[in-house]
Amino acid sequence: MSKTQSQRLAYGEELVALGRENKDVVVLEADLGKSTMSYLFQQEFPERYFEMGIAEQNMLSTAAGLAVSGKIAFCNSFAVFAAGRPYDQIRQTISVGKLNVKICGSSAGMSDFGDGSSHQAIEDIAIMSAIPNMTVLTPCDAEETRQCVRAAAEIQGPVYIRVLRNDLPDVLPEDAEFHLGEPRVLREGSDIVIFAHGVMVNKALDAASELDEMGISAKVVNICTMKPFPYEAVAALARGKKAVVTAEEHNFIGGLASQTALALRGSRICMDYVAIGDTFGQSAHNHEELLKFYGLTKEHIIKKVKELL
Amino acid sequence: MANQETINHKIHHLAEQHRRHEAVRKIQRLAAQIRKDVVLMIGCKGNVGHLGGSCSSADIVAALYGYKMKLDPKNPGWEERDKFLYSKGHAGIAQYAVLAELGYFPKEDLLNVKGLGSRLQGHPDRSRTPGVEANTGSLGQGLSIANGMALAMRLDNKPNKVYCIMGDGEQAEGQIWEAAMAASAHKIDNIVGIIDQNRLQATGSITERFDTNPLPEKWAAFGWHVIEIDGHNIEEILGALDEADTIKGKPTAIIAHTIKGKGISFAENVVGFHNGALTQEQYETALKELDEQLAELDR
């Protein structure tokens, strides 16, 4: 088993590194700094850190005001509160105005397993992707999270970064460079393609290893840029393959499954998905237990592949 | 000697009074011109426009742009400028009027307001209109945006201020009170929140919906320095804006008592002109009244 690292810790540390290099970086937090790891920035740059209390809508609009004044404003909360509660604020001022507000949706997916459906974001990618001018990033490990923080600061306009609460296995090669909108091929294969993001990338790699033993050669592709979605690159990667399976910890509506289906329109490639059904989460004692319950495992990916072939 | 000093003092005082009087007259003229431009923008071809709330806040807008704010119409992005936001973005046409009067863009653009491709949208759009600082229109968000601008000024050691006009109906939006708490928590003293208390909202009187009163007590309880004024008395508006400059360590709220539709006899205190169309007759009457007001001020 490969080394695991905390995605949110990587996020917080990279924010501090960014703050050292760029004095225009400011950070806003809605009283969850110890969970989102934004408190690391507070420790080093208290004057550029704004504790905005339990008031997410105000936090996002305040960030808009900072952004129109030349700041790069990172807003932090749990994904369910960062993408859901201040939707209108994100839409009306930040996205219409293409403002430099970066939204970290932390404890995303079902990674806040114990707190139940109220704290589990299963539709955040769909909401954010439907807003014009928004960039949506879904890093799959700690290193990619760091790269997303960097990319977010460079992008002119709003960015949503989806970060999980738990440690994730390192899946990226050490020298991997980040290119916005470019799918990363993590394993070559000739029969089928598995597209995945977030926690499901490592599971897709495990599935590919087992499929290999069964004589099925699976290519595994990490899709970190969910918007602007790489429709053409995805179509190109799928070309000539017997089947495509997507894997994501998100509602199948408006996420990777939907976007990949759009990318493959007009082709004859058969496709299926592993995703959360159109349903809310619930409490459990750990993340893996929930992933298994909602059908998000290596076994589910293998099953879908075999059904298609 | 003492006598001469007294006389000098009196002369100075009279000169000061005259200067102030001329400043007030200039602002009154600008306000009347804003109202006239608003009527011209709405027109009488069946298009609706937010006449009532634009006219109720016109005197405050004129005082800000004609007296208080540091601006450079030739350079809307001037780094040293003060900033203005209509949180009640539907009154944006009053801002369009003053921006055109000051030369931010040609006056003839006013007549294409809300037209396809126009730089003047139904609600303020920063990317299209020089002088507009942020997109507003979804109510309740402007004060939070203004807080962010004020915090940025503080970080950059700028002495400037942010002025934000809200509606009294808008006070029903919960985010206003989030922003009110945030401003006092962060001791933002370079922000002035102005509440255009015209007592009417889109479909009727405020007291018959969410009664947002009593506003002075509410804002004071949220940690703001509160000044209550007649929002059509220019002297009082100027006095309140100057007083805000002296308040340190806390934000200032100006509760301005106003009349919706002020300056146009048939529209005053009439709900229907919140966002209404003008008949040919109403249009002509409004222009005639405002021209008379302008002529009176020019005498």
Descriptive report:
The complex is a heterodimer of chains A (309) and B (299). Chain A contains 13 helices and 14 strands. Chain A is α/β, with parallel strands linked by helices. Chain A folds into 2 domains: 166 residues, Thiamin diphosphate (ThDP)-binding fold, Pyr/PP domains (Rossmann fold); 125 residues, 3-Layer(aba) Sandwich (Rossmann fold). A 7-stranded mixed sheet of chain A has the order 3-2-4-5-7-6-12, with helices on both faces. Chain B has one domain: 3-Layer(aba) Sandwich (Rossmann fold). In chain B, strands 1-2-3-7-6 form a 5-stranded parallel sheet, sandwiched between helices. A two-stranded antiparallel ribbon of chain B has the order 4-5. In chain B, helix 1 packs across helix 4, helix 1 packs antiparallel against helix 9 and helix 3 packs parallel to helix 4. The longest helix of chain B is centred in the N-terminal third of the chain and has 41 residues. The model of chain B has no long low-confidence stretch (mean pLDDT 95). Classes of the chains: A alpha/beta (309), B alpha/beta (299). Chains A and B meet through helix 4 and helix 6 of A and helix 5 and helix 6 of B.
